[in-house]
Amino acid sequence: MPVHAVLGATGGTGSAILRCLLSSQIPDLRINILVRSKSKLFQAFPQLKSTSSATITIFEAPISNENTLKACIKGASTIYGCVPTNHASRKVDIALTTAARIVAALGQLRKDQGSEYETPVVLFTRSVALNSDVQLPIPGFAKRFMVFAIWAIYEDLLNAGEVYAEAEKDGLLTCITADPPGLMDNKMEATGHKFIQRGKTTASMNYADFGIAMVELGQRREEFGGKIVGVAATGAVRIIIFANLWIIFLGLKSRLIPF
Predict the structure, then answer these.
(1) Hey, is 60 helix, strand or coil?
(2) Residue 95's domain is classified under what CATH number?
(3) Residues 218-255: pLDDT tens digits?
(4) Which UniProt keywords apply (predicted)?
(5) Which residues contact 97 (CB under 8 A, 6 or more apart)?
(6) pTM
(7) pLDDT digits (tens, 9 = 90+) for 174-226
(8) What is the tally of structural domains in the chain?
(9) Is residue 146 a contact partner of residue 204, using CB atoms and an 8 Å limit?
(10) 137 lies in which domain range?
(11) Ramachandran angles phi, psi of 145, nearest 5°
(12) CA-based nearest residue to 161, from 113, 112, 78, 95
């Protein structure tokens, strides 16, 4: 009976993954969900109030709660880390902190379970802007400006990736790094996605499509385990310009104004 653990299910990526899992045809699927607020989760997914506890278990706590995190990912074959932020500031370490806590919890579980420990797949969301093999369809100067403006976020993601890579070398987990372009509109229906390991991607994609892609990557672990995979849209994407410009503006402000 496969167990999928979703760490953070009320943001754009986490809710898209959970929505995909709830409608999936994965046999005998069980879902563990870690959220800071059950009430916020139930607002987004009212059907969870009446769902059988035999198939879905909800843990209410911050990811810093070691015992709850360990309980949530215990026995999980697939773990989705959906806690990182889109908001740049002078000091961003949420992706790194999340990675360190997941790795620490898995280390404790391996110690507790000994030879019965089974290596899970961890799905790590990064950004295609950090992928040298996949190119965004934007001018080079525009990409460099974006990376400069929100470098704090990218640096945090790179640091988190190093933590997962070291844990993978230790045999603690298998990491699949998903590199999406700009993610848009978590209310739009899915219109299609594809995986790219070399070449050009799209400038943006819908959260709904990325959620489906993440679940598919987890199911194709034999093919993509230990790899960095670009994810692109194949259908229509509703572009939300202001929200993304605001993220870049705040990041640029934090880099240029030291107070």
Answers:
(1) strand
(2) 3.40.50.720
(3) 999 999 999 999 999 999 887 776 666 667 777 667 76
(4) Membrane, Transmembrane, Transmembrane helix
(5) 64
(6) 0.91
(7) 999 999 998 887 677 889 999 999 999 998 899 999 999 999 999 999 999 99
(8) 1
(9) no
(10) 3-256
(11) -65, -45
(12) 95
